[in-house]
Specification:
Helix content is 40%, strand content 22%. Strand 1 and strand 2 form a beta hairpin. The longest helix has 15 residues. It is an alpha/beta fold and 143 residues long. It has one domain: Nucleotidyltransferase, domain 5, CATH 3.30.420.10. Strands 3-2-1-4-5 form a five-stranded mixed sheet. It contains seven helices and five strands, in the order αβββαβααβααα. This is Tick transposon.
Length: 143
C-alpha cells in the first residue's frame, strides 16, 4: 500500500503526538513529498481525538483526495459519523463547504507503512509530530 500511496500526489499522511504534559497533543499532516502541510496543538484526553483533528485539517486545508491514518479507531469514527467536536470545528472552519469536496480516509497499520520507501511519509509525519512536541530551547538556556 505504501508503494501505491507513498508518492501519490493526492495523498496525505496524518499523525498525533503527545506533549510531555498530559492531555496535550499535536496533530500533524504531511503530503506525498514529505512536506509538513499543517499542524495544531490540541488539549484532549486521548490520541484518537487528535488524530481526528489531523484528518479534519487534511480534508479542510489541503487538496488531498486520500487521507491516510494509522489509527483504526479514528477511521472508524469518521466512517460511522461520530467524530469529536474538536474535529468538527476544524472541518467547519476549512473549505469543506465546497459541494464537491471529499476525501477517502484510509487506515494503514503503521508496520504496513514501514520499510517500503527510504523514508515513508508515515514515518516522516510521525517524526514531524514528535518534533513539534518538544519545546524550543533558547541559546541562553543551552549555555
Amino acid at each position: 500500500m505504501t508503494k501505491i500511496f507513498g508518492r501519490n500526489h493526492e495523498a496525505v499522511f496524518v499523525d498525533a503526538a503527545r506533549y510531555q504534559e498530559r492531555h496535550r497533543f499535536v496533530a500533524a499532516v504531511v503530503d506525498h513529498t514529505e512536506q509538513h502541510k499543517s499542524s495544531s496543538s490540541i488539549v484532549t484526553l486521548n490520541v484518537e481525538t487528535t488524530e481526528e483533528v489531523a484528518i479534519a485539517m487534511a480534508i479542510a486545508h489541503t487538496n488531498a483526495l486520500c487521507v491516510i491514518s494509522d489509527i483504526q479507531t479514528t477511521v472508524r469514527n469518521y466512517f460511522s459519523g461520530r467524530i469529536s467536536p474538536e474535529a468538527k470545528r476544524f472541518l467547519r472552519a476549512g473549505k469543506i463547504h465546497e459541494a464537491d469536496k471529499y476525501a477517502h480516509i484510509l487506515w494503514l497499520p503503521a508496520p504496513t507503512l514501514l520499510g517500503y520507501l527510504e523514508d515513508s511519509p508515515n514515518e516522516v509525519v510521525h517524526n514531524v509530530g514528535r518534533g513539534l512536541t518538544f519545546p524550543a530551547t533558547s541559546h541562553e538556556a543551552a549555555t
